[in-house]
């Protein structure tokens, strides 16, 4: 493909930012909107907020392999247009909900049609020259992080200025713009290798997981998302109880910390092509995994909020290397005809890290205290770094010697 492949990469990254903002943007005002819908008990509103916010990534995890398969059969342009159109309608409909149950149903539908991430990954490996894949993967990972970072910010500003129903119109309009971008700017790409329609989804996923390297890299994807989201629910409570911070500033400080970690993660992802010129990809993912484990311990040891924030941002920087490097190595480890489909399965497992991270961290915090969340997460990253060193770094060096 000629130089137009870069234009397509930029387009799908912009679509990813818009889609991420649309899905995540409600989190900043969701509990308040639920109170407006009639949940006057703060505990009940918090419970519903957890369910309504968590059900979408859960459904995305379950539906991603299906949409990857459809993109392989019909072409990514048609499938992404259908996904964005449905997302635009369901997000706009949220503005008219009158009960929490109605909002829950619409959030479920948004998750069902939210499988555009693996389609974007499949497009990258389809059109990008082999030597440029790490750069493209890094840029795409940065776009995912930017959606997560700017979504709550946009949602909160729109809610404060225009009311709690207005952000849904804003997000619906943003999705509509993304839809028009696909319609006018995305060529009708087709995957050269089609998956057999008779082959079941389960058998496809099993065939991927039979490859040891893919199993390890999928686990790294899960762990990365687990580490990013798991600390989120306990962070405000940890800051409030163990650091001398005025209650009215806790939410703002947490927002700044999350923004800083996301920004540094995006910067790391964008810089991957330069780093891979100096270090091998297995070495990069090993170093990043070990560093994240160390930085979680340092976060816990910090006596001040700013020390915690600085080491959280540095941890975000190293996390920014893990996902795009893992995706690049996965694309090299599977046959070319399976690359598009494999990202559906990978995205499902990775997204479950977003779902299970807050749940497991909450259970650990309740049973053993807030500090145990930092130590247990660090321990998991250390164990993962050992597996990466043994199965990726050592095996590569022994094979090249």
From TrEMBL:
An annotated Gene Ontology molecular function: transmembrane transporter activity
Record membrane topology: Multi-pass membrane protein
Repeat keyword on record: no
Main location: membrane
Listed transmembrane segments: 9-34, 46-67, 79-98, 104-127, 139-158, 164-185, 216-239, 251-272, 284-302, 308-329, 341-361, 367-389
UniProt-listed SUPFAM superfamilies: MFS general substrate transporter
Gene Ontology cellular-component terms listed: plasma membrane
Locations listed in the record: Cell membrane
Keyword Magnesium appears in the UniProt entry: no
Coiled coil: none
Location of the Major facilitator superfamily (MFS) profile domain: 8-396
Keyword terms of this UniProt record: Cell membrane, Membrane, Transmembrane, Transmembrane helix, Transport
Protein name (record): Transporter, major facilitator family protein
